[in-house]
From TrEMBL, chain A:
Any one Gene Ontology molecular-function term assigned to this protein's record: oxidoreductase activity
Record-given protein name: Xanthine dehydrogenase, molybdenum binding subunit apoprotein
UniProt KW Ribonucleoprotein keyword: no
Positions of the Aldehyde oxidase/xanthine dehydrogenase a/b hammerhead domain: 22-136
Gene3D superfamilies assigned: Aldehyde oxidase/xanthine dehydrogenase, a/b hammerhead, Aldehyde oxidase/xanthine dehydrogenase, molybdopterin binding domain
Provenance organism: Thioclava atlantica
From TrEMBL, chain B:
PROSITE patterns: FAD_PCMH
Keyword Oxidoreductase: yes
Keywords noted in UniProt: FAD, Flavoprotein, Oxidoreductase
SUPFAM superfamilies: CO dehydrogenase flavoprotein C-terminal domain-like (SSF55447), FAD-binding/transporter-associated domain-like (SSF56176)
Stated name of the protein: Putative carbon monoxide dehydrogenase medium subunit
Pfam families associated with the record: CO_deh_flav_C, FAD_binding_5
Annotated ranges, domain FAD-binding PCMH-type: 1-177
Source domain of life: Bacteria
Record GO terms (molecular function): FAD binding; oxidoreductase activity
Species annotation: Thioclava atlantica
UniProt keyword Transmembrane helix present: no
Length: 792, 289
């Protein structure tokens, strides 16, 4: 931990827990709104179909129904979403608020029923009849790219919505020189976010003031406000976005979704508050999906396993609609693929397909597949050359002597420690002892495996990143810090927490910068009339972008406080002064000593006695600051995991899981630990259980939580966490981001561990999830036909 | 996820419940623990016009052991079955199966009558009832009748229950073999099993298998008892060879549904594995291993 901090790094309990664990949180459904109308969406039962006619006459006459609105109606109330950033290879797209001519996935909303309560709205929604002409559904990447494929978006020339390539150095020449060229394949399946609290909003149009109050659990209130205002033809001063407590988001609550815009437009149209609570089936089917990729690597290696060149192909299934530019997620995978390894000759090709499935979006670690692809490639090299996988990692890993390291894509790695975390993890798991156990177990017919996965986690995402990614908005954050007349501190930043536990760590960043106790700082988030503009919470940027900005703003406040204190102490300047826990201290000799002056005294003077302030110092104590962090900061970690595979059932049990992680300066170890555990749990849950399933006609078969399986604590092991802290030299207080790397590492490490366990049976994991039935299928395929299955 | 409109009834007696069920015929649905019916109502997969809540009929929450029967009232919760000493003593297989249902909160609400009437092919209690040859007591407009569990369960969520009828009790014949096991394979703790096995037998003085009962869940539209496998095992030593032979024979005897998600061959493999594990668990428990 960095020296000298008194507030940063404290294990301060999460401030929000008082209300959250005593059942006094206020979520969307806790907000009363007398007379609010409720909506229910009529959704498409087909994956791909023309809308011929919508008959809502019967529904409109039903009790309590205020109206039934279709895509045509909404097209008069809202503008369309056009995404056309100047990015080579990206086709521009345009969306209406609700579909008018065609539905593009099972669950696509085609009409919105507004009624006096949700029950009546659902009764009426059943009575809206939609006549469809079914079209051939595109349900896989291969189908999307087939020459005769049906077009998912009729306005595009093909389903290849985004296509980028890059070649750095000379990978083809490296291939020609290589001792061996190793090929490997990785297919990650479709996931969805499953926040405990589904999407929802309460739109309250005040016709007198011509103002919309939009209550919505959202990660990015300011960009959402800009979107909402623009799509409704309002100014930003006519829209206030307010996020109450939010029960999870994981990337699902960034975009302005069509349902939410519909609700806002209808509140304005009807001059009534209108609310929508997405139900679980809608959430699983129609909110946003993620992670469906097929990747291939071709690696040129020397005899010792040294990587000479890497060629990567990424295909992504983006679903039916672009709520984000289609290059957004896959681009980061390609950008950081080489990660912890010394590779300079590198090429990639990224192709993104539109299909008749729910639209894709970022999900906690949008680049999650990266570490599995890179580390699975390393293991493939080790297998192919019969080398120790630990040695292949050592031969290629970046060490301190390589830093700062410019990756072939131009990304700069600095203050990262992949070799150190690798060695920590290898030592802690005791690889040699494991190999002995593994050999012994195999002789008893038991199959143990060890996986390793080193992660370079891209975090923070400054303006430079978003600009090059084509995402509207910038990557900077703003903050204000206000010391009130009594000396307590209020502060605000543009982030919005959705369960991370921001309130303590962010108040610690303020307290550290200012010199007060974190307990005396309150951080306000989620109301666009109160919070300053910021890009919000996404991409592991809360700590650096949010905490960093607050810290800088607090430093500015401290400077003023000390200047006033100096004048109150009749000193010429504040040179020998500091503040700790709200008390002014002065360096006397070699010691800091209290001088009997507190922040409360300074605040009183600033607010209530401004006439005696020194010349040039304005009354009051409020400060603002903006900060644009680096395009990226990088954290790193190495995951290690031991598994046992039950050959009879295909079940996988995790015997041990550990991670050595370097996430720089830690604002609050309780919150960081929660993020580490949560991220690993999410990664393992995804790799082992979760899967969005569409059949070949595009029907979603995983629309309940009995079908879309999420891990519970029963399915997860204890996680051992080893800490390593290397501050980032370019950020305030050395902060880096974290909270997504655990997902990346967990997916890679479990896949690698299972491949290791099943190596004697000739099985390598190329496709997730690791369901017991898929493991059995691999074992059946691998078994020589003469070999009969035997029972243990 | 809001149910279609219905009228809610809460009868105070069995007679009143039966009257309501008869009056509303197919439009009525009894509500016991609600652990399956609740979600089905919310998803509008079940849309009864009348919901008859049985939860005041506490006389149906009962356990009675006689020399030759364990009688379980239809409203008995899984939690009680899993923990009642009289079940532990007389029919530990039933208690173990009940203990494995869902999660703690589900077991507090779910009832044996509800589970049988719902007839999920992978559920625990229908499997135990079929394997042990339980009889259901059903009350209706013409008094009460009895029917074997195996006859009552007709297909997936399809049972022999006519308008105005209600399961009031389940009778398990006693005694059963003193060796037993319930083995299930599910994706997560508390999920419905992909395949489950219920096993009960005794060993005679020479160690040979007698009174063998073997049932499988999740391999057909209803839980299956396998009399031909029972006959095959009868009189043999419960050794490796016998166990493997019975397991392979079981896997051959069943014809599970084939789906992309869970192929038939996988369910067969699980059946084979679980039969082996059930025998081993039963023998190990007796031998204290």
């Amino acid at each position: 931990m960095s020296d000298g901090f008194t507030e940063i790094g404290r294990a301060l309990p999460r401030k929000e827990d008082r209300r959250l664990v005593t059942g006094r949180g206020r979520y969307l459904d806790d907000l009363a709104s007398p007379g609010a109308l409720h909506v229910s969406f009529v959704r498409s039962p087909h994956a791909h179909a023309r809308i011929l006619e919508i008959d809502s006459a019967e529904a409109a006459e039903m009790p309590g129904v205020v109206g039934v609105f279709t895509g045509r109606d909404l097209d008069h109330m809202t503008t369309r979403l056009r995404l056309a950033p100047p990015i080579e290879g990206l086709q521009p797209t345009e969306l209406t608020t609700l579909p008018i001519n065609k539905v593009r996935f099972h669950g696509d909303p085609v009409a919105c029923v507004v009624a006096t309560d949700r029950y009546l709205a659902e009764d009426a929604a059943e009575c809206v009849t939609v006549e469809y002409e079914q079209l051939r559904a595109v349900t896989s990447i291969a189908e999307a790219f087939a020459p005769d494929a049906a077009l998912v978006d009729d306005s595009l020339s093909s389903n290849l919505v985004s296509h980028q390539t890059l070649s750095v150095g000379d990978p083809a020449a490296r291939r020609a020189e290589a001792h061996r060229v190793v090929e490997a394949r990785f297919a990650l399946h479709r996931h969805t976010h499953v926040p405990l609290e589904t999407r929802g909003c309460l739109a309250d149009w005040d016709d007198g003031r011509a103002h919309l109050n939009m209550h919505i659990g959202n990660q990015v209130p300011h960009p959402l406000r800009s979107q909402l205002a623009s799509r409704l033809g309002l100014s930003e001063s006519q829209v206030t976005v307010m996020s109450p407590d939010v029960g999870g988001a994981f990337g699902q609550k960034i975009a302005l979704y069509r349902e939410e815009l519909t609700v806002a437009a209808l509140s304005r149209h009807l001059c009534r508050p209108v609310r929508w609570r997405e139900d679980r089936m809608e959430n699983l089917m129609s909110a946003a999906h993620a992670r469906e990729y097929e990747c291939r690597t071709r690696t040129s290696v020397s005899e010792t396993g040294r990587i000479l060149g890497l060629e990567l192909e990424i295909d992504e299934d983006f679903g039916g609609y672009c709520f984000y530019p289609a290059n957004y997620m896959a681009r980061v995978i390609a950008l950081i693929m080489t990660g912890p390894y010394r590779i300079q000759d590198y090429a990639y090709e990224v192709r993104v397909a539109l299909t008749n499935k729910c639209g894709a979006g970022p999900m906690r670690a949008p680049m999650a597949i990266t570490s599995w692809v890179m580390e699975g490639t390393i293991d493939a090299i080790a297998r192919d050359l019969e080398l120790d996988p630990v040695e292949v990692r050592r031969v290629n890993a970046l060490g301190p002597e390589d830093l700062p390291y410019k990756m072939p894509t131009g990304e700069i790695l600095e203050d990262v420690t992949p070799r150190e975390t690798l060695e920590m993890a290898v030592a802690a798991i005791d690889v040699a002892a494991f190999r002995e156990r593994q050999t012994q177990a195999r002789s008893e017919g038991r199959y143990l495996g060890l996986g390793l996965c080193t992660v370079i986690e891209s975090t923070t995402y400054g303006s430079e990143f978003y600009k090059s990614a084509g995402i509207p908005g910038s990557g900077h954050e703003s903050a204000w810090v206000r010391i009130e007349p009594s000396g307590v501190v209020n502060a605000s930043v543009g982030l919005m927490g959705t369960g991370q536990g921001y309130e303590s760590p962010l108040s610690q960043a303020v307290a550290e910068g200012l010199g007060v106790r974190s307990e005396d700082v309150t951080v306000h988030m989620g109301n666009t009339d109160i919070a300053p503009y910021g890009m919000g919470s996404r991409g592991g940027r809360g700590a650096t972008a949010g905490g960093g900005t607050l810290y800088l703003c607090a430093l500015k406040a401290r400077e003023r406080v000390l200047a006033i204190a100096a004048s109150m102490l009749d000193l010429n300047d504040a040179g020998g002064l500091r503040m700790r826990a709200g008390q002014i201290e002065r360096m006397i000799g070699d010691d800091w000593q209290k001088v009997g002056l507190a922040l409360t005294d300074v605040a009183r003077r600033a607010y209530l006695d401004p006439l005696v302030l020194p010349e040039g110092i304005p009354p009051g104590l409020d400060f603002s600051q903006s900060y644009d962090p680096p395009a990226m900061t990088y954290s790193n970690s190495t995951h290690a995991c031991e598994v046992e595979v039950d050959l009879q059932t295909g079940a996988i049990s995790i015997d041990r899981y550990l991670v050595a992680e370097d996430s720089g300066t830690i604002l609050n170890p309780i919150v960081v630990s929660g993020q580490q555990q949560g991220a690993i749990a999410m990664g393992l849950s995804g790799a082992l259980l979760e899967q969005v399933v569409y059949d070949s006609s595009g029907q979603n078969l995983s629309a309940t939580l009995a079908d879309y399986l999420v891990a519970s604590p029963n399915e997860l092991p204890e996680f051992e966490i080893l800490h390593h802290h290397t501050p980032n030299r370019r950020t305030p207080a050395g902060i880096k981001g974290m909270a997504e790397g655990g997902v990346m590492g967990a997916i890679g490490v479990i896949a690698n561990a299972v491949s290791d366990a099943l190596a004697p049976r000739g099985v390598t994991i190329k496709r997730l999830p690791l369901t017991p039935q898929s493991i059995r299928a691999l074992l059946r395929e691998a078994a020589p036909s003469s070999m009969k299955r035997t029972q243990s | 996820m809001k149910p279609a409109p219905f009228t809610y009834h809460r009868p105070a007696s069995l007679a009143e419940a039966l009257t309501l069920l008869l009056r509303h015929g197919p439009a009525a649905k009894p509500l016991a623990g609600g652990q399956s019916l609740g979600p089905m109502l919310n998803m509008r997969l079940a849309r009864p016009a009348h919901l008859v809540d049985l939860n005041d009929l506490i006389e149906l929450d009962s356990l009675r052991v006689t020399e030759d029967t364990l009688e379980v009232g239809a409203l008995t919760r899984h939690h009680r079955l899993a923990n009642a000493p009289e079940v532990q003593r007389s029919l530990p297989l039933l208690g173990a199966a009940a203990a494995s249902i869902g999660h703690y909160t589900i077991r507090q609400r779910g009832t044996i009558g509800g589970s049988l009437a719902h007839a999920d092919p992978a559920a625990q209690l229908p499997l135990i009832a079929v394997t042990l040859g339980a009889t259901l007591v059903i009350s209706g407009p013409d008094g009460s009748r009895e029917i074997a569990a195996a006859d009552f369960l007709q297909s997936i969520m399809t049972v022999d229950l006519r308008d105005g009828e209600l399961i009031t009790a389940v009778r398990f014949p006693l005694p059963v073999g003193d060796l037993w096991a319930y083995e299930a394979f599910s994706r997560r703790h508390g999920d419905f099993a992909l395949v489950s096995v219920a096993l009960s037998f005794s060993r005679d003085a020479e160690g040979k298998i007698v009174a063998l009962r073997l049932g499988l869940g999740g391999v057909d539209t209803v839980p299956l008892r396998l009399p031909e496998i029972e006959a095959r095992g009868q009189g043999r030593l419960a050794d490796e060879n016998t166990i493997r032979d019975l397991a392979i024979a079981t896997a051959t005897a069943i014809a599970p549904e084939d789906s992309e998600q869970v192929p038939a061959v996988y369910r067969r493999e699980l059946a084979e594995t679980l039969v082996v594990r059930a025998f081993k668990a039963a023998v190990n428990r007796e031998e204290g291993a």
